[in-house]
Amino acid sequence: MASPSPPAWADLLPEVLGEIVACLCDADVARLRAVCRAWHSAVACKLQDQEQEAMPWIVIPNGSFCTIGDTGVFFNRNSRLPRNVTCLGATDSWLALDCTDDVFRRTNSFDAYIRDGKFPEPRSDVKHEHNYLLHNPFYEKTVSLPELDSIAGHVNETFEIRKVLMRSASPNDLVAVTTNNDNCTIILCRPGKGSWVLPYLGVFDVAFFKDKLYGITRHEDLVAFDLADDDDGSPIVPNFKRVIRHPLADGEEDPWSWMDDDYDTDDGEESGDEAADSFNPDDGQLVPSDDEDGVDEEVPYEPKDYITTSRLLVESCGGQELLMVRRQVQSPPFHPPYTRKVELFKADIDAGRWVSVTGRDALPEGEALFLSRSFSKSIRVKRADGKWLTWLFPPKLVV
Q1: Residue 103 in contact with residue 120, Cβ under 8 Å?
Q2: Are the beta carbons of 114 and 102 closer than 8 angstroms?
Q3: 116 plus 76 within the same structural domain
Q4: Which domain range does residue 183 map to?
Q5: What's 181's DSSP letter?
Q6: CDD domains recorded for this chain (predicted)?
Q7: Do 61 and 188 lie in a common domain?
């Protein structure tokens, strides 16, 4: 007598399927949801019962990534991506990719040292072609950014894109880009519509907050940019204003005082495609990176160390506060660098000042900040920091 065949997986009870979901890693859960509508609903119900947010993944510049936690798994880069691609950063569930033959964008200096036997330096007299993409690895969707290509598609090796940030989950919405070049400090583009370039502002990190874009300088000035569209749907910045200014020392001049009143960009500023045609990123000065704002400080009874300070803008989990995270990294002689201090501030825009928050007031219980140079976020959690690593947050109900 033939033994009865085991029950089909599709006939599993939702309760049993939910217990299986609890034992899987993030990527396997994503695949499980894609099997059929019944499994999708069972997974969603299980996750809602657990009331947990999607934990982020860590993305490596070559496009590979790993999940974190007890069920962490490493995944190689997607073979369907172009071979010459590198990851510039992430914004929630989207990766910002750069396709180029520029070795400084595709390999780290250690890899180059192993290959050539010396640490190379980027050259300002050598240019490379770049093609920029937005890629969603969860839905296998890729969107090109021709507006960004037209501005930063042919640049020298010292040119660098620091951050690519999307205003929403839609790739057709507004995308903000910051660079290390003062001719195009901030680039706003809407795929298929147009672009807008803001130069000479000294802003190195930005964040969308409510209906504006905010940027921070190395002196901790906060600049608010009004956002709008022209008749063709191309992004424009009608005006901007410095809403928080850093305290001045006695006798110190403020070179940015002209931004304390609403600055109308129609008064002589170029916009859209005209700006893209006229701005040459290679003509501008390279402004110091957020992790290169270093000062030497004398520490009593210790050798003189090099200390770098970075400042990141983050929207709070509930979307009610704009936060600034100030991090100091100390690099002792002949020793690995370490985090010396991390401070958190809230923007009091009405009063025009940063308010320090510490202890229980820093973050509500159950919330955590995930910080990286290219993307930072505040999320609720139940229970890597490197210069070139970034966080990737799966869509809701994936894990």
Answers
A1: yes
A2: no
A3: yes
A4: 57-283
A5: B
A6: F-box_SF
A7: yes
Domain end marker among 236, 263, 283: 283
Query: What number of other Cβ atoms are within 10 A of residue 350's Cβ?
Result: 7
Residues 168 and 219 in one domain: yes
Looking at the structure of the chain, the number of domains it has is 3
With H, G, I as helix, E, B as strand and everything else as coil, classify residue 244: strand
Q: Say whether both 27 and 74 belong to one domain.
A: no
Copy the structure tokens of residue 69.
């936690």
Type of residue found at 104: F
Give the pLDDT confidence of 245-280 residue by residue, as tens digits: 988 888 788 877 777 777 677 654 455 555 555 567
| Two tokens, residue 289 | 């990176």
CA neighbor of 397 nearest in space, from 135, 46, 36: 46
Q: What angle do CA 149, 153, 158 make, to 5 degrees?
A: 135
Does 252 share its domain with 309?
no
Average pLDDT over residues 157-175: 91
173 token code pair: 């919405």
Q: Specify whether 166 is located in the same domain as 257.
A: yes
Q: Which of 236, 256, 283 is a domain's end point?
A: 283
Query: Has residue 219 been placed in a domain?
Result: yes
175 plus 251 within the same structural domain: yes
- Rounded-to-integer distance, Cα 299 and Cα 308, Å: 14
Sign, CA torsion 371/372/373/378: negative
> Edge-to-edge, what's the strand order for the sheet holding 239-244?
203-209, 212-217, 222-226, 239-244, 263-264
Eight-class DSSP state of 395: P
Which residues make Cβ contacts (< 8 Å) with residue 308, sequence separation at least 6?
291, 292, 293, 294, 328, 329, 331
Taking CA atoms, 98 is separated from 88, 89, 136, in Å, by 7, 10, 14
